[in-house]
Description:
By secondary structure, this protein is mainly alpha-helical. It has nine helices and no strands.
Amino acid sequence: MIAAIPVDCEQHPPSELALFRLMIRLMNSAIGSLHLARGGLYQQSVALLRDVMETTFLLDLFASDSAELQRWIEMPAEEREKHFKPWKVRKKLDERDGFQQQKRKAAYRMLSSYGAHPTPEGFSVISPDNMTALGPFPSAPRFKALVEEAALRVTEGALTCLKHAGRARPDLHEKRDVFLPLVQWLMERRSPYSAGGTTPPP
């Protein structure tokens, strides 16, 4: 679904090009995360899922406020880093959606603790049977957990990318008609960042 949206990137104005490139970054990070998980490098896989989440949050903010996209493109790097800190982006999204329980923060912190930042909690990802391993190792429970997390994060990313679908190629509607029924259970329930959370499909 995500791959169906960007088209002829170099022929679009800078704002649309930036959106397309963010979508491609999201998809590349998702692919990389699954490759690493299959290869037994679970901590690195989690770190890339956090990148998927962070990129999704940016795309979501830009979908509701195009001025923010323009600021993100035009600001000097130092100002952009301050204005678009991940916690500030999450705060804006929570305020927009009326969410007060900071579930975006909790999800981001979880992926940070287990993958992106060196923490004691993260040792469990590299320690089969509590014996820390050097390099990759097979682990069905870790792989299953990562695939489930990836399914949630990448689906959320795809739904967010669809908010920018006005810039799509003609066959997008056919792909969307196939994709959306597969995630109808998610769309019928509240966001995973709302007070109620979501219910998994039967």
